[in-house]
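Quick one: structure for this chain?
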Amino acid sequence: QVQLVESGGGSVQAGGSLRLSCAASGSFVSLGAMSWYRQAPGNKRESVASITSSGSTNYGDSVKGRFTISRDNAENTVYLQMNSLKPEDTAVYYCAPDIDRFTTIQAMCSLATSRYFYWGQGTQVTVSS
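Got it. Here's what it folds into:
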């Protein structure tokens, strides 16, 4: 089993900052790309930022220059530093890592992993004007 624990959400005034964390634990071999998504009421879930296992990053246009994604591979944790927050950043934020796991004993014996996409439970970010 894999557990994802998100933290760091909350309420802040416009212009403020928050730092989200998402720690992965459980039975897996490695983490691939790790991403953050968000979903505001009435809106579709959208990609915010992603980071590969080697550290390459990608950001949504609405957060470029304000948000920074990073990861600690030793701690299996991904972070999202959010600065200059705006009311339109209000949403539930979800971490979404690619996780490599052994799915059978045979796969474990042959070191053949399968990659799965997981969603965190979400953390609320509210930005007031």
